[in-house]
Queue: 3 jobs
Job 1
Amino acid sequence: PPLFQLIKEQSGTEWKEMYQVFNMGHRMEFYVNAATAEAIMKNEKTFNNWIKWGLINLAIVALYGMMMRFKIAYEFPFFQQKNLLHAHSHFAFSGWISHFLYCGLAMIVIEQLGNAVRKKYKMLIIANLVCSFGMLIFFTYQGYKALSITFSTLSIILAVGFTFVFVKDAKRFSTDNASKPWAIGGLLLNILSSAG
C-alpha cells in the first residue's frame, strides 16, 4: 500500500528494514492443506465471525497497551495502572491468543470430523469470549478481586475442557494428520502453564 512508500520516504528507512519491521500490507494468512481450505470455505461465515472477534480483541489489547503507556506520562483518572496491566495481560492471552488458537483448532476438527462437532466448539469459543471479557471488565474495574479471579479461574477450567474435548475428538482423525500431535502438545503445555 502507498502508506509504506510514504513511511519509507519520510523516514529514510531501507526496504530491507521496512520488510522486517512492518508487515508491508500482508493480512492474516493461514497456510493449510487443500482439504482444510475446503472446510474453511464451507464454514466461511462461522470462521469469518470468529476471526472478526479475534481482530476486535486484538484492537482492545492495543487500546489497553496505549492506555498503559499514556498513564505512565499523564494523569488518567478512573484507572489504576496495575489494574490496566492485569486486564491487558489476561485479555491478551485469553481473548486474543487463545481465541485464535481455539478457532484454528476448531477448524481442524471440523475439517476432520465434519459439521457434527461444530456446535460444541462454537460453545467453547463463546464461553472463552465470555471469560475473556469478564476478566477485561473486572480486572480493569477492581484488580485482583472475587469477580476477576472467578473469570480467570473459569478461563483455566475452560482451557482444560477444550483440551479434553479436542484430545477426545482427535482420536478419530485420519492417521496421516500431522497437526494432531502438535495441537495436543500445545494444548497440554497451555494447561501446564496455568499451574504457575
Job 2
Amino acid sequence: DRGCAWSGAIVVGLTAGAIVDGPLADAMVPARGPAAPARHSCLPHRGAWPVIALIQRVASAHVEVDGEIVGAIGPGLLALVAVQPGDGEPQLERLLERVLAYRIFADADGRMNRSLRDTAGGLLLVSQFTLAADTRSGLRPGFSTAAPPDQAEIWFERLVQRARQVYRGVETGRFGAHMRVQLINDGPVTFWLEAR
C-alpha cells in the first residue's frame, strides 16, 4: 500500500455489481493543515507527473447522470482517468496506446495475453480527478496534485476525441457532473496505469 488515492476508497467499486458514486466537483477544496510538497504519493519523486488511468476489465459498465444513462459498454474496459498539472498531448497519446494495447484479456489458454484491440471490446472513459489526490497524511485528501478543472476538461475531452479517432466503441461519462458508475468487474481485474 503506497497510500494511493484508490487504495482505501475506490476499491468498493471494483467488485461485481458495484456502484461508484461521484466524482463531485465541490470536493476540490485544498486539504487543511500545513502545505505539503507538491508531489503525488504514488509517484517517484522526480519531474513531471503522469496522466493516470485506473483500468478495469468489465463484463459491462454504464454511467448515469441525473437518472439518464449517458455511456454504456458490454465486455471491455472501464478507464477512470485523472489529469495532473503539466499533462498534455504526449502523455495522453501514450496513455491511450497503453490502454488499447495492454494485455489483460484471456487467450485460448486462459492467459492474459490479449488486448482491448484484440478483443474489439468496448471502452468507457470516465474522468476521475480523485485519483490524483494527495493522501499521504491526515483524514482528508488534498487536490493540489490534480489539474485545475478547466485544464483537465480540455485534456480529458481531447483523450476521448483521440480514442474515437483510432478505436470504435468508445463511450464516456460527463465531465464535472455527479456520475453514478455501475460495473461488473470481470475477474476481478484492475490495473493502475501511468503515462509520462
Job 3
Amino acid sequence: LLIDSLPVPDVVMGAFDEKTDELISDLMIDSLSMFETQGVRFTVIPCNTAHRQIETLRGATRCEILDMVEMVVDRVAADAHVSVGLLSTRATIQSGLYETLFGARGAKVLLPTDETIDALGRLILRIIGGGDVSDSQEILQCAITELTVEQGATAVVIGCTDLSIVLDELLDNPVIYDSTEVCAENTAAKLWNISR
C-alpha cells in the first residue's frame, strides 16, 4: 500500500482554471508514474474534485484508477434514488461529474444555494487548515435540510472527503451517502478480491 499526498492549490471555492487543472493533472501524473515503478496494480484518488481529470489520468498510466464518483453514483442508484442532493466544493459542482453520471441513470442532482455552497467551502477550508469547526454539524444539517425538506431530495451525497471528517452523528441518517465511506468500502472489496 502506497500513499502520496499532493500539495494541490486551493480549489475549494471554485478557483479552477485551465492552468490549475494542468498543474493538478501534472502532479497526479507524476504520482501515478511513481506508483507504476513500484508495481502498483490499482490506485484510488480520495478526492471528488480531483476526479475532474480522471480521463486524462487514465490515459497517462497503466495503473487501474478506481472512480470514486462512479462508486458513489452506483451505490445511490442501486437504492433507486432519483432525486439526489449534492454537498461538495464549488469546483466539484462546476465540473458536472455527479450530474452527468446520475443523469445517465435517470436521476436528477439537486444543489444547495450559492450561499450554502460558500458556507460549505468556508467550512472545508477550516477543516483543511485545522480551524474551529464547532459549527460543522449546524452547517451540514442546514444544508441537508435545504436539499431534503425544501427541494425534495431523497438522498444526499457528501461529495467532499474533507466534509466526511465532521459528519459525526449525521452518518446515522439513512439519506446520507458519504463518498469517503463508499470509496473505502469499494477499495477494501477490491483488495480482498485481489488477495484471494
